[in-house]
Q: What sequence folds into this?
């Protein structure tokens, strides 16, 4: 597939997760809720007439039959509204939550805020269910054995289903949790994470008032146990043999009008026994939350909620993180828990996932003691997305084989042999390793310049030269090397029009910042701009002016010159 066709496809399909649409009125919900409310109003008028004694005795049987018919219409409308809230609203939100779980905290927080509107929709529907159940309670009491018991049972079952599935894991664990000391790879040495259980709606049934300060327990389970839970929600849970989770209990709290929540803050995974890295790298774990809630209508909500799967590592392992990135980004874990990763995805899907993953690595705190960073992430432009997906060789239909992300060699790294400092060999580097390494370098050495727009980023040598030729003044462009692993390239167009390229390894950037290098190295002294039109001195703080060496005033006497002659 041509690069222009790929670009056109991504223009149509790509919807960056960094700027989600503002919450808008859900027209489908409004329409369905109005139909439910209208049907309920008809039921209410019939119930009021029967319970107030306005219906004469001879007419009661026919009136009851008409009321039962109206009840069936109510149930049909309720089922339709429930299906919309569960499938078109909550399921869609949960599927997007899975994809965004590899993104920045800023992006995840924007998505989390969408639950406020969903909570309101659940409250509206819950009020209709509660009022209908209340009316049916009276009708079956005063008019027994005429059919209201069956209607009440149907509405109660519908309500039970709705309330139970309104309990969600609103904050998921990360895809990879590393349990180790100060990992040599700084970006994977952050151990703590937060999760949360939230109940949407439920106020009409007293879930918030009846369960505030009630306990909820959390267990770390294996994916095998999670599979058993799919078939038996009442399965007795035992913790993983290798690890335990802390804290493992908290309470439901209601702090505002947006539902009741149970927050597990600063969660950590602890080892129970000494483990090898490889022994747990292939395993998947889940968090299992034990739920037991009371309502004011006699329905008890008992069951278990299971998080998305994740890996627990004893030490950093990049290939495992890469596989979990693919799993969270492309597997259908919400509709089909613990399902496999697809073999191919569209270029647009991969481009968006790479964008989110890169920004998440860039924002990761470098030390365990650093707090989380919640900043507006810098977006990839369309050229960057196109460049990245083309490196993974999409097919004619615009789809990428996910094996290419894991296995396709895109760069080379020179590895020295232990026997001699100058001896070594070139090793091929797969796409995921090349991509993750550049994100790490940006996080550790280029953070400020990246967010200030001074790093162009992903770009080939040929594209860089074509871009620079279009700029009339002397200009430089900072890009990531396509071929050499973990290197940053500076492409420069001098005032005479000559184009040259310089490179730096991350060890060089550790010794001196790129900012200082661009200001002080004479190779860049004649450069006016950073691409596209950013004044270099203004952006970086001004060049250090070279010190002019002045002649010393020695004022020598005659003896000085006599000694010069003697010296020769």
A:
């Amino acid at each position: 597939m041509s690069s222009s066709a790929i670009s056109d496809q991504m223009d149509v399909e790509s919807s960056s997760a960094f700027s989600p649409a503002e919450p808008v009125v859900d027209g489908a919900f409004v329409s369905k809720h109005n139909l439910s409310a209208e049907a309920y109003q008809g039921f209410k008028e019939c119930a009021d007439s029967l319970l107030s004694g306005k219906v004469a005795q001879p007419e009661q049987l026919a009136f009851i039959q008409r009321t039962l018919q109206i009840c069936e219409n109510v149930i049909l409308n309720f089922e339709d509204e429930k299906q919309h809230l569960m499938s078109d609203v909550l399921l869609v939100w949960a599927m997007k939550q899975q994809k965004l779980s590899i993104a920045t905290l800023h992006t995840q927080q924007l998505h989390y805020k969408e639950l406020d509107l969903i909570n309101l929709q659940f409250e509206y529907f819950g009020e209709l269910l509660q009022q209908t159940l209340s009316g049916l309670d009276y009708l079956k009491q005063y008019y027994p054995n005429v059919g209201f018991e069956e209607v009440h049972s149907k509405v109660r079952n519908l309500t039970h289903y709705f309330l139970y599935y309104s309990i969600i894991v609103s904050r998921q664990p990360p895809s990879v949790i590393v349990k180790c000391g100060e990992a040599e790879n700084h970006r994977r040495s952050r151990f703590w994470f937060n999760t949360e259980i939230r109940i949407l709606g439920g106020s009409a049934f007293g879930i918030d008032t009846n369960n505030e300060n009630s306990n909820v327990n959390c267990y770390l389970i294996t994916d095998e146990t999670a599979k058993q839970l799919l078939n038996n929600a009442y399965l007795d849970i035992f913790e993983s043999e290798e690890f335990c989770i802390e804290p493992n209990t908290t309470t439901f709290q209601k702090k505002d009008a947006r539902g009741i929540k149970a927050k597990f803050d600063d969660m950590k995974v602890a080892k129970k026994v000494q483990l090898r890295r490889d022994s747990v790298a292939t395993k998947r774990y889940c968090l299992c939350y034990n739920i037991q809630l009371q309502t004011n209508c006699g329905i008890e909500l008992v069951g278990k909620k299971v998080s998305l799967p994740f890996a627990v590592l004893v030490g950093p392992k990049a290939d495992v993180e890469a596989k979990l990135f693919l799993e969270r980004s492309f597997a259908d874990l919400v509709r089909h828990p613990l399902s496999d990763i697809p073999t191919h995805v569209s270029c647009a899907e991969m481009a968006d996932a790479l964008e989110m993953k890169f920004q998440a690595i860039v924002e990761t705190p470098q030390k365990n003691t650093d707090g989380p960073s919640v900043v507006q992430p810098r977006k990839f432009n369309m050229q960057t997305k196109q460049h990245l997906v083309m490196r993974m060789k999409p097919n004619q239909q615009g789809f990428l084989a996910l094996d290419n992300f894991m296995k396709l060699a895109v760069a080379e790294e020179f590895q020295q042999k232990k026997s001699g400092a100058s001896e070594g060999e070139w090793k091929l580097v797969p796409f995921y390793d090349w991509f993750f390494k550049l994100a790490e370098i940006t996080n550790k050495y280029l953070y400020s310049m990246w967010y200030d727009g001074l790093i162009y980023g992903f770009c080939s040598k040929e594209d860089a030269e074509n871009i620079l030729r279009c700029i009339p003044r002397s200009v430089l462009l900072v890009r990531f090397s396509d071929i050499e692993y973990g290197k940053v390239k500076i492409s420069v167009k001098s005032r005479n029009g000559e184009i040259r390229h310089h490179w730096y390894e991350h060890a060089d950037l550790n010794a001196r910042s790129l900012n200082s290098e661009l200001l002080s190295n004479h190779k860049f002294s004649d450069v006016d701009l950073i691409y596209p039109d950013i004044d270099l001195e203004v952006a970086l703080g001004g060049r250090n002016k070279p010190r002019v060496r002045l002649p010393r005033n020695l004022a020598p006497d005659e003896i000085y010159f006599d000694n010069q002659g003697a010296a020769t």
The chain is about 45% helix and 20% strand. The longest strand covers residues 260-271. The first helix runs from residue 3 to 13. The chain has three domains: 25-168, 172-317, 382-414+427-540.
